[in-house]
Write a structure and sequence with these properties.
By secondary structure, the chain is an alpha+beta fold. It has three helices and 15 strands.
């Protein structure tokens, strides 16, 4: 009997291991009800990239950022985007993001209809149903625009048409903004990424910055050219089920 017991025991252990693995692979995020969105970002360290690779010097990163804003009292890093926010699922594939923000000192409310898709163990995507316009400059001056578009780990789909050279722009585009959800089991957070990118282009330079509800494109740092600098700080807005 001993000759049969050990193979059977090992088989049971292997079966339990496989069952556990399948369970762990199943996304657990609940797409029902209402979630309160945190108004205080949980930030990660600020990172800087140049052509030589990642710069790991906090003091240098801070000095660079302050120099870009010519000493203006602008806080570096992720800026809280909402005074209040909640995510309401109207079906397993649709939701509404209700937000209150401060515009010129006055609270402004917004209700953005979204579609829910791309659910994996680590991530899901909420895509706005409301398209937004976007124009890209013509010639080399579009370098900053191209990098800022590609900085997103989950890039929206752009539909573009060419514009006459006399307008000074290369293309007129339309896209639907995305809100990336970071998932850890049943816990979810809206990803938010502060960025500032500056580049040397023919005849001058360009610089762009801001916040995106997205994650860093891991392949982007490898595209940084001579004279380019990218500063990024990723953060999260945790969701709490009501």
């Amino acid at each position: 009997m001993k000759h049969y017991f050990y193979p059977l025991a090992l088989g049971l252990i292997a079966l339990v291991g496989c069952s556990k693995s399948k369970s762990e692979e199943t996304p657990k995020f609940d797409t029902t009800g209402t979630y309160t969105v945190s108004t205080t970002p949980e930030p990660r360290p600020m990172r800087m990239f140049t052509q030589t690779g990642e710069v790991r010097n906090d003091a240098l990163i801070q000095r660079y950022f302050e120099r870009q804003y010519a000493g203006l009292p602008i806080k570096s890093g992720v800026i809280p985007p909402f005074l209040a926010a909640e995510l309401v699922f109207t079906s397993p594939s649709e939701a509404i993001l209700n937000t209150t923000t401060l515009m010129s000192g006055t609270p402004q409310t917004s209700n953005v209809p979204l579609t829910f898709s791309g659910l994996t163990n680590e991530r899901a995507v909420l895509t706005s149903k409301n398209p937004k316009p976007s124009t890209s400059p013509s010639g080399n001056s579009s370098k900053c625009d191209n990098i800022v578009r590609d900085i997103q780990g989950v890039s929206p789909v752009y539909t573009c048409t060419s514009l006459p050279p006399s307008t000074g722009f290369g293309t007129q585009c339309e896209f639907k903004p995305v809100y990336v959800l970071n998932l850890r089991g049943e816990q979810a957070s809206i990803a938010i990424m502060f960025y500032y990118f500056s580049a040397t282009v023919s005849g001058g330079s360009c610089g762009m910055g801001g916040n995106l509800f997205n994650v860093l494109n891991a392949a982007l740092p490898g595209r940084i050219a001579s004279g380019d600098t990218l500063v990024v700080q990723e953060a999260e807005l945790p969701l709490v089920k009501k």
